[in-house]
Amino acid sequence: MFDYISNLWDLALQGDRQGIWFWASVYTFLVCGYSALFQSLIRTWPSTIGHLINLGVDRFGSDISVSEQDYKAYALYSYQIAGKTFQGKRISPWIIVASHNAQFLLRKQLSKVETFADNGVRVFYKPSNPAKSWLILPSKFGITMTIVISMLPALSYWLEFYG
Asked: What dihedral angle (degrees, nearest 10) is formed by the CA atoms of 128, 133, 136, 138?
């Protein structure tokens, strides 16, 4: 096993397609695996009712033609945990940047923010660090998709070189 990994490392250093594909697959698996674990942990976070100060969609990046402009969602909210006030701006662990024509994706994401009367908003916070918070919990579907994405490069590597 060690020889195989060592050989693939050498192939990657030489710019060989198989070596690069293997290590890209390993990297994708590790990053997405960590993300899936992190998203699963976030689903266990407690929530509180905070105060929504601002929520919307805004331009992202430099001012260029409308068709090339990117957009992102933004938020600002405050909440209290154990008598201490915090401010948050994170909406979701899934950060989406959309083109002008795909702004509907951002509006769809924002529609999942649970709001109440008088600008109340549900805030999910990390128990060990209440300053870290989100307005939307990761969904089981999103976690499943992250796991699937983590395995696709490895599967395609196996099919290409051993299938």
From this structure: -40
Structure tokens at 118: 């008088």
Task: With beta carbons less than 8 A apart as the criterion, state whether 116 and 125 touch.
Answer: no
State residue 63's pLDDT score: 64
DSSP label at 93? S
Could you tell me if 91 and 136 are in contact, meaning their C-beta atoms sit under 8 angstroms apart?
A: yes
Residues 46, 125: contact at Cβ < 8 Å? yes
Q: Which two tokens stand for residue 31?
A: 């990053």
Say what the pTM is.
Answer: 0.81
Sign of CA pseudo-dihedral 117, 119, 120, 122: positive
- Segment 5-32 mean pLDDT: 94
Q: What are phi and psi of 91, to 5 degrees?
A: -100, -50
Mean pLDDT of the 103-131 span:
95
Q: Are 1 and 126 in contact (CB under 8 A)?
A: no
CA atoms of 141 and 93, how far apart (whole Å): 14
One-letter amino acid for residue 115 of the chain: T
